[in-house]
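Lab notebook, page 48
Experiment: co-folding of the full assembly
Goal: obtain a model of how the components sit together before planning crosslinking
Operator: M.T.
Materials (sequences as entered):
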Amino acid sequence: MPDVLRQIGTIARALDSISNREFQQLALSKGQYLYLVRICEQPGIIADRLAAQLQVDRTTAARAIQKLVTQGLVEKRAAINNRKNKALFPTVLGQRRAQVIERENQYSNQVALTDLTATEAEQLTHLLTKVSQRVTADWQTVKAGQSRPY
Amino acid sequence: MPDVLRQIGTIARALDSISNREFQQLALSKGQYLYLVRICEQPGIIADRLAAQLQVDRTTAARAIQKLVTQGLVEKRAAINNRKNKALFPTVLGQRRAQVIERENQYSNQVALTDLTATEAEQLTHLLTKVSQRVTADWQTVKAGQSRPY
DNA sequence: AATGTTTTGTTGTAAATACAGCAAAATAAC
DNA sequence: GTTATTTTGCTGTATTTACAACAAAACATT
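Observation: model returned without errors.
Model output:
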């Protein structure tokens, strides 16, 4: 059984630190880009849902989003028939920034796939989807306080 | 061109936070497990080399390793014919801890690959290796202060 | 309807993370 | 051999990250 854990970790760290560095030009600090693009793609989403989607700690996501609000890139609005949830929406400025992020992400994705054929790239996503499902399940249990039998 | 960036990021974050949580039982704080296993596998390695290998910021790695030293899990020794480099070695206690980490990592890897056949798993590593090479190259340039044409 | 459970937002807090920048040693270039 | 460049370790510092814990709202159970 080959090791994919380490490979995935290394690639992810590299891509994340590249993005974080590049988005300093947009006055975005570490991690913020993640949330901003997603909010643009899924306007109205709430923080907890976004955190679960990104597999990020709730409070980490909440604080990062709060900062986006302070910076005027995102808005929180009370949900229509719900006094608890706060729906997230990008501002016009936020949308502009998100376009740059999207472009950069696409570029990075392109670089990552440079040496793969089209079919290989499809295979890769397909396999990663399967991996993701299993890992997500474990993440949820562990985050919920349960322990794994390793 | 399918998106693999996000998939890789999500999987990596999930696995990392699972590990960090589980290793609290070993009194290891966020990130430390990464360095400890590698030092055990490559005794005598220096901090900068390890950081490059893991694709982690130099100073982040340095501080994490320093904490491992303080905790008595790792030792720094002056290199034989070199007054600058500090070679890293695990202590006996460090090696014991590393065994648990290794077991956990193998378990996570196993979980991740549950739904893949043996050949699919091989394919996946093969593809990830190709991805890794390209991404590593970009990481090095960006970390060195150069910018990419996205 | 009343009670118990889950979800969501939020804060306090300790720690990791990553930037810039320094000095000393090592290596490369001349 | 001397000078320039790179490597390595380290520190100061601002910020993010993630834990625990709380309250209020929503939802589920009876």
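Interpretation: Strands of chain B lie at 74-78, 86-90.
Next step: discuss with group before ordering constructs.
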